[in-house]
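We treat protein structure as text, and this decision shapes the records that our systems exchange. We quote a single record here, exactly as it is kept in our systems:
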Amino acid sequence: MKELIRYSIRWSLGIAVITFVLAALFSIVSTVLLEGVGWAAGMMIVFVIVLIGIFFDMLGIAATSADEVPFHAMASKRVSGAKHAIQIIRNADRFSNFCNDVIGDISGIISGTASAVVVVQLAVTFADRQSSALEFTISIVFTSIVAALTVGGKAFGKAFAIRFSTPIIFYVGKIFYFFEKRFNIVLMREKKGKNHKKASISKKRK
């Protein structure tokens, strides 16, 4: 129990720091991209941010839905990415927390901020900044569209992730393998709980 609490505290503090850094980076990049562009380009940037959130949400759902059994046969044949896929599934709690909560929530916050900038740009384009009614209408319509795309996209991504969780995690495992092989960057370390240790001991006895 104490070990679980320590692990949870370490992970919570670590992910909080990562979230702070990524949120700052996302905010800086989106601000730089939106500065000086028209409302059409601004809309495209907002939609890209929304798509990033949907994509990572799908990855997080796939990790919690996938079963590691199909990857054991691949790993025994030394298929590239199979072992990394197993590691992702065994660390599904952390992986989904990063994808769904960190990237997903940051994307939601940044897309909301970017939407406000686009609304101002639209109001300026219509040369009617004195009309609060127009700006209010534009704000409501655009914000509603962004919200609808976010919720609808995540609903579609969730169904897709559950249905095709195995190939999705396999491709992510290949990406992890590529980074480790080419750049020597380990994105996720192997997690062996008590159940895995017991299983390995019983195999040795046999």
